[in-house]
Structure formats: C-alpha cells, structure tokens
Design goal:
By secondary structure, this protein is α/β, with parallel strands linked by helices. Helix content is 30%, strand content 23%. It has 6 helices and 13 strands. The protein has helices at residues 31-40, 81-93, 113-130, 141-146, 148-157, 192-198, and strands at residues 2-3, 9-11, 14-16, 18-19, 54-55, 67-70, 98-102, 134-138, 161-162, 166-172, 175-181, 204-208, 213-214. The strands form 4 sheets. Strands 4-13-12-11-10 form a 5-stranded mixed beta sheet, covered by helices on one side. Strands 6-7-8-9 form a 4-stranded parallel beta sheet, with helices on one face. 37% of the residues are buried.
C-alpha cells in the first residue's frame, strides 16, 4: 500500500477502497460456488494475485506495507494438511508485514473427532504464519456451522488474533494503521457500529470480513 488518492469511496467515518481480489489460491473464488469450482475442477491450481492499493489517508511511514489475505480454507474437505502447507509456504515467501485470515476455516457442519483433528492440523499451519508476522482473523459462516468455540480455540492455539467486531492498531513512529474485524454477516454476528465506536479518529483503517474487505 502507498499514499495517494485512487479508487476512493465514502463509508461512514472512513474512506475505504474495496479489495476486489484476495491473495493466495483458494481465496480468489469466494463462497460456495467458488468452493465447488476449486474442489471439482482445478483443486491443484494455486494462484497468487498481487494488488497495489493507494489509500488517501495512509501515512507515508506505512508506504509499501504488505498484507497477505487468505480466505475459504475449508479444511476437512478437499483441503488437507498436506495441501494447506504449500499455500502457507506461498504466503510466507512474500514476506508480508501482516496476514489477514478471512474466515471459513472449516468445511461442512457439526463437530466430531475428525473435525477436531482437522482443526489441530489447521492450527499447526497457521502457527507458522503467526510466528513470522502479526496474523489477524475473522470468522466465516462455516465456522459457526461447525463449532465457533472450537474454531476460536484453534485460532488461539495458533496465536492468531481474532477480531470479532473489534479493532487492532499498528503503530509506526507516531502514526497508526487500524484493522477492523467484522464478524460473520450470514449468522448475524456483525456489528459495524460497535467497530466504528472503537475506531480512533486518526489514521487509516482496513475493514476486513468474510464477505468483503474494505480499505
């Protein structure tokens, strides 16, 4: 990201630039339709998409700040521990300043021993990310359809910071970059008013959720 004026829209107290793509293989095609495509047509095709974004309120101290975003992991279906490893490798190779995990960590419905084993494998891979850089997460609808408490436990075991209608701020010199996590809208868990109430008046903000990501 770099300072400038480009693609600006107005959203309450913040100017956000909509992120129209998501970094790393599985997340480029979102939702159930995307999962059907990736699982039935090209399950081995991983793609990295790079986007350069200009934020009008971004302080120059954050110029070149690199974010890696991953969504729709859906571990427990086609996605296995062995297949997740190269995705994490790909992200780490980019040396991001921060990682965003945009929900739907689990696949299917309900919770059993097999789901727990998948969650344990997921935590091991996500720990590789959090050991290298700050890693933030929001929940997706499948995380509620399986077991939100167990998914949250896996994120905690991976030292991933979950933002459930909450904010997280990074400081460089005296300037701040704020990350706002919107909980899942499909399950009615989102509360944007709560987030905006927490958001400081100064600095640029990134608003991330399972459904979309705004800057």
């Amino acid at each position: 990201m770099k300072p400038g004026v480009k693609g600006k829209i107005y959203f309450s107290r913040r100017d956000f630039l909509k992120l129209t793509g998501r970094v790393a293989g599985l997340s480029l095609i979102a939702g159930l339709g995307g999962w059907k495509y990736i699982s039935q047509i090209e399950p081995g095709d991983l793609e990295l998409v790079e986007l350069s974004l200009a934020l009008p309120r971004l302080n120059p101290v954050f110029s070149g700040f690199k974010i890696a975003a991953i969504s729709d992991i859906h571990i427990g279906g086609w996605m296995t521990f062995e297949r997740l490893t190269p995705v994490v490798d790909m992200v780490l190779a980019q040396e991001p300043d921060l990682v965003l995990l945009l929900g739907d960590f689990m696949h299917g419905y309900g919770w059993d021993d097999e789901k727990q084993a998948c969650a344990d494998s997921l935590a091991k891979e996500l720990l590789r990310l959090s050991e290298r850089t700050t890693t933030l997460a929001v929940m997706g609808n499948h995380d509620y359809w399986t077991s939100a408490p167990d998914v949250r436990r896996a994120l905690e075991n991976a030292n991933v910071i979950e933002l459930s209608n909450a904010t997280y701020s990074l400081t460089r010199d005296s300037s701040q970059l704020h990350f706002c996590g919107v909980d899942d809208i499909w399950e009615g868990q989102d509360d944007l008013d709560e987030i905006l109430a927490q958001l400081p008046a100064e600095g640029s903000a990134v608003n991330d959720s399972f459904s979309l990501c705004f800057f």
